[in-house]
Every structure is written in C-alpha cells, then in structure tokens.
Amino acid sequence: MTKRLAPALVLIAGLAFAAVSCGPRAEAPQVGVNLAGMDTSVRPGADFYDYANGAWQRSTEIPADRSSVGSFYRAFLETERQTTELVMGIIQSNPPPGADAARIANFYNAYINTAAIDAAGTAPLQGDLARFEAIANRRDLSRVLGEQVRADVDPLNATNFYTENLFGIFVTQGLATPGEVIPYILQGGLGLPEREYYFANDAEMMTLRAQYRAYIEQVLTAAGVTDAGAKAQRIYNLEMQIARAHVSRAESENMAGSATVWTRAELQQRAPGIDWDAFLAAAQLPNQQRFGAYHAQAITRLSALVASQPLQAWKDWLAFHQINSHADVLPTAIDQAHFAYYGTALSGTPQQRERSRRALDALNQHLGDAVGRAYVERYFPASAREEIQGMVDNIKAAFAQRIRGLEWMAASTRDEAVRKVETIVVGVGYPDAWRDYSHYEVTADNAYANAIAGERAEYAHQIAKLGRPMDRAEWWMTPQTVNAVNLPVQNALNFPAAILQPPFFNAAADPAYNYGAIGAVIGHEISHSFDNNGAAFDSTGALRNWWTEADLAAFRAQGEALARQYDAYEALPDLHVNGALTLGENIADVAGLQAAYDAYHASLGGREAPVIDGLTGDQRFFLAYAQTWATKMREEALRQRIATDGHAPGMFRALTVRNLDAWYAAFDVQPSDAQYLAPEQRVRVW
Predict the structure, then answer these.
(1) What is the pTM assigned to this prediction?
(2) Contact at 8 Å (CB) between 112 and 444?
(3) Residue 349 backbone dihedrals phi, psi, to 5 degrees
(4) Which domains occur in the chain, in start order?
(5) Phi, psi (5° rounding) for residue 562?
C-alpha cells in the first residue's frame, strides 16, 4: 500500500456507523486466520510476528525468480493465474483488428516470441541510435532530451522519481495551484536505484558500482556498439555528475518544500544550459507557460550539465539508456545481462521469471485498462464491490469519530480534518470510465515498437489532461494490481479489485478477519491523508497549512516518537529500519489499524463476537493484520528496501499492534514481555 504525491503528486460529522454486509451470515463464518502458519509456542507479547507467522516463516521458501515472498505474493499468484487464463482466452478468440482484445493478443504474441526478437537483433533499435548519433550541438541535444521525456505514472515511485530519461513529467493539479492542472518536472537520469548508490562508501555499494560500470560495457557490447569500454566509462562518469545534481531522498519527500511553480521565462532563467524552446517543443509542450518545479534545485543543476558535459558523453548516455530501459524487448543476451545486474546483483534474485509471466507485466504496463476491464467483468462480482464499499463507509465514519474525540486538537483544525474524511473520493475495484487505446497501434511482430508506442500513448494520455479540470475520480492503478493507493492532491483512494481477495478479503470469513486484513488496508489508505505528508493537504487537495501551531507541534511530537520506535527495529545485525524515511507509512499503519478496529466493533452492533477455533474476535482481528504482513526477503532485497523505500519491511509493520491498547488485552501482554510498551509510549497519532 502506498501514498501518492498525486503528484503524490498524486500523495464525517454526524455520521452513524454504516451497517455492512459482512456481518452475520447464514452459514457459520470461517476463522480466516492461517492457523497452520502460526507458532503458538511463542508468547504473543514476546514476538507477535513470530507467534502469528513463525511456522509460515520457517517453512516458506522464496521462489527462485523472486527477491521476496509474502501475503501479497499469494494474491498476486491468483491474479496472475486469472489474468493468464483471460489473455489465453482472448488470443484463442481471434479478436477483430482494431479492438482492445486484438491489441492484447498482438502485444502478448510479439512479447513472448523471443525467436523473432533474437532474429531481429538490434535492427529495431537502430533508428533511435542513429537519432542520438546525429546530435551535432546543444540545441539538437535539447530536442532529443525532450523527445525522450516520458510520463511518471508509477504510484509506487512516489516522489523519488528516477527515470532513466533526464527529466520526467507528472501531470496533475499543482501543489500551489489549486484548480489548475500543470506538468511537474521531476529529476531523472540515473540507472541505479537512488543517488546514494553513487556515493556510499561501504564495501557493498562500492561493489555494486563496479558491477554497474561493467554492466554498462557488457550491454553496449551485446548491442554491437563499438568502443564499448571507453563509452561505458563516459556514461558512468556522466551519471556520477547527474547523481550529484539530484536532491536527496529526504528533500524529495518534502512536498511542502517542493511546491515551486515556474513560468516559462523563469524556467529559462533559473535553469540555463538546456535550450528549453527546443526541449519543450519536442516534449509536446510548446505553448505551456507554467511548470511545477518539484525538484527545483536538481532541475537547475541538471540543465547546467547539458551545457557543461561533453556532447559525446550525452550521446553515449542516451544510447545506453535506450537499450537498458528496453532490455526485455531486445535480444536475449541483453535481456539476460539486464536481469543478472538488476535482478541478481541488486536484489539477490537467482532466476528470471518465465517469459509468459513477464508478458503479463508488460501488458499491464501498456494496456492495463484494457486487461483490467476484461478482468473485472470475469472475476470481480458486483457483490464484492458493494461489500467493500460498505466497509469503507464504516471505517471512514470510525476515523471521523476518532478525530472528533481528539482532545489536543483545536476546533478549527478538527473541522477541516473531518471535512477531509467526508469528502474523500473512494474508488473500489475499478474506475467508472475506461481508457481509450484507439490511437495505440500494436503489431504482432515487433515487441520493441510496441513498447515505444505504448510509452508514447501513455505520455499523450497524460499531457492531454493539461487545460482541463482535475478529475478526482482518476485511477492510478489498474484493477488487476495487488495494492492500494492514496492520492492527496485528488483527496481520493483507489482499492483495485485484485487486492479484494484472500488473504486480504475473504467473503467466507467473519468480520474480525476482514476488518483486520482488508479493513486495515482501507484504514491505512484513509490515514495517508493525515500522515506527515498527507496532513499538509486540505479537503480540496490544496497544499496549505490548516493547522494551529499547537496542533501541528503535538502531531509532530507523536510522529517523532513513532520514528524512534521504528529506528530501534533491527533488520540485520548492521542494519536498522529508518524511522524517518518510513514515517508516513507507519503513521498510516497505526491510525488505519485503530480506525479499522473501531469500525469492526461498531459493525457488531453491540453483540459479542463469537469465539472461532478458540480465538476471540479481537484475537482474530490482530492475527489477520499480522498475517497480511508475513514477509520473507533475500538479504540484498532487504538492504535495498531499507535504503530506498518509504515502507518498512512487513515483519516490522506487523508490530504496529504494539501501539493499540486492545492488543494488550486480547493477548494478555504483560510488562515483562519483550514487546510491551508502557501506555505513555504507545503512539496514538489520530
């Protein structure tokens, strides 16, 4: 689950608790909890994660083609099975030309035909390489950099956008321009996951950098590029300069400090080096007059590099990144080299996924709505959408009620907070309007061309939003995505259909399980509107301070306490969780779990929860939550997660329960237990 700058950049007064259909059922409800995955020899207060997941943790093997495994993977596998079945059926139906079904069939068939890809060699790439080699001056370079711009549409990337193109574009309502949709310019240009990978001096990072330099040369050689060694060194040296130009991860996460808007004249004045007229014309923004400078300092420094760094280095860099970012649709030698570095060296994954399964990922990237529309028609019943919508209403009401009960919050702050909850736009399952792919031409015999055309179609779709009112109902995830997202600029949430299945939602399980699993997910996403970043946005999605000084100080104090709590968690003997980096997600976990718990009890309507398989309702609720965060990771992936990701590893997110008083009562947790927190140390937040 994530928040979105929506830009994250796409980051209830008087309501009674709504009755929802996941109350008592005609048949006896199932426990829902994976009893076989527990280790009941462990005392819950000693290690709650091990108590809930210990048997699963010890018996589960990470598949050879994965860097980690967990509850998300279980839902992912089922969704992948369904999507495979769906796509195979579409292909066998011989769909008519021009239909989305034909696009799906053509794209899939071209992607899995590695014999044709290998036979074509680098021929599909030659037009782009020739375009780069023809660059003769800075104006040419600026034009080509503009042609290379792509839209940032990955909601998991959040504010730390590191496209392999020098700049990325994100289109949404501006942080400082309520009601006005503008293009945000974001830093890019790196082939490693984060700027610190270029500068950290520990042995592991130094090894990864050396391997990256060797990988650049290997890929250029495999693509038939001459003088690959010298070019690889120029590319590596240029990327070191690009990394120095980037703002840090901490700066990138600071939305309030990134609301800068530049006019076209200011863009040219404050970021000299690029020929902005040539760049913007090539980026299909020739008449755009206002821009969000999200990474303002980086934009200035990156632009200066266009003028200061050798032209040949830029040409080499463009060639490498065109190859690197499309390795999956180029000959096998390039594809395998790419996986060996990014899959194995960076993430520890020993084996690449089957081509047919990777084809589904590529389909979801380029034709996600077309696949999603067919997916929900076949696999997502209207009854499930209605049931989840009822839970959403219930949890929203619980959250609003908690806000009204905050003694430390002034009335003016409280009123706006409640208004924000009331006006959240919640999308469940799938969007009400589907994407039009009629201008996306897909052939059955050129996987590289299909990928390039897909990127261009997505970019055209994004910039078409300029000059129009923001669509608060816009979706940023496909229905077949096992995840959920908060969009603070839209004040909206998306809960795709694929997450509304076991282990997150089980129609046969009792409410305790579903509220602890999918209910906590719903509460988490609602709570993102009130985390350390989301709380900076008001009910309209505008970035403004609606807090009193005292309220903000009290809120920040709770956040600092939660950060210290997570700083203490040891992932490896030499590695702790970064409490500051993961603070937004951790706030959402604490507040969301508490709201889901309140909503669960409200759904009982004053009745006692049944005891099922020896577990009380509260015990099932907390176990369901902990089991959704069952996680096993390779060491390389764990290190990368902690270094770059705003989400703490799942085994630590499961320990959110330590901050809820009800957990202590449910499992008789005592002060002598290792995971006991004194009442004054439990973080309440909301």
Answers:
(1) 0.87
(2) no
(3) -80, 120
(4) 2-14+33-76+381-433+473-681 (3.40.390.10), 126-329 (1.10.1380.10)
(5) -70, -40
